[in-house]
Amino acid sequence: MIRELGALTLNGFREARRNRVSVVVAVFTLGLLLSSTLVTDVTVYTFQRVMSDVGLGAMCLTLVLLAIFLSSGLLSREIERRTIFLVVSKPVSRALFIVGRLAGNMLTLAVLLLMMSAVFFSQVALYGLPVTPPQLVAAGMLWVELLVISAVGFAMSSFASQLVSAVVTTGVYFAGHLSADIYTLAGRSSSVVIQWLGKGIYYLLPNLARLNFRPQASYELMTPAVDIAKSAAYGVGYAGVMVALAVFIFSRRDFK
After folding, report:
1. Where are the domains of the chain?
2. Among 39, 83, 128, 206, which is least packed by CB within 10 angstroms?
3. Cβ atoms 186, 197 nearer than 8 A
4. Could you list the residue ranges that cross the membrane (predicted)?
């Protein structure tokens, strides 16, 4: 089982690496990171803060878009190219196939995240600024956020087309960052229905704001290790539920 999982993971990593979108996204991100110097030149008093905002923000934006693209279209491409029939005909469970493909995606995103982080932190060091622990935490927790988004994309692509999966996953990403605001606004409503609806949306959507440590990095605010661990556990747990849902749906699909 471990051998099959490793093979599926490496195969997914190689497939994503061959995808030119990954290269384009990496180049685009490097350009955004380097362009932060144009912004910081006119913001002397907030030099480090703006550099952190631009660098971490560029990494987040491009990696999230890549995560949505890879996760929402993977199963659809397998079905369109008929390669899924080769997989289901082999002694490899569909659950293992889903987990292996997700692991390959996350390995790809981890490598890109490490590369982008190296460029960002090198740029910070070139300006004589310190690399702060909150920045390291923000970069690390970004991977957990990507895990949640990828798991949602896999859950959607297990039964929907690539376009629908991408649109819904993108909506979940933005709504997930606003879930706490939705809960607060619904609680202020005089309608009981709206209040319950707001609570339902809050608990159904991933609370991605809980995984966003970029504001703390900008203001050099260190979060207690216990809170970081709880947020990471929440993200991994939510992703696990989405993967289980994807496995449940995908295992019951008929590919005749």
Report:
1. 1-252
2. 128
3. yes
4. 21-48, 54-75, 96-124, 136-156, 163-186, 231-250
CB count within 10 Å of CB 69 equals 19
* Concatenated DSSP letters of 79-146: HHTTHHHHHHTTT--HHHHHHHHHHHHHHHHHHHHHHHHHHHHHHHHHTT----HHHHHHHHHHHHHH
Task: Please tell me the least confidently modeled range out of 93-97, 136-140, 211-215.
Answer: 93-97
Please answer whether residues 40 and 47 qualify as being in contact, where contact means their C-beta atoms are separated by less than 8 angstroms. Answer: yes
**CA distances, 8 to each of 14, 39, 71, 243 (Å):** 10, 43, 15, 16
Q: Can you give the pLDDT at residue 230?
A: 96
Phi, then psi, of 161 in degrees rounded to 5: -75, 170
pLDDT in tens, 15-59: 666 666 666 666 766 676 666 666 655 555 577 788 888 889 888
- For residue 108, the one-letter residue type is T
pTM given for the model:
0.88
Residue 208 in contact with residue 228, Cβ under 8 Å? no
Show the beta-strand stretches assigned E in the chain.
none
Looking at every residue in the chain, the average pLDDT score rounds to 83
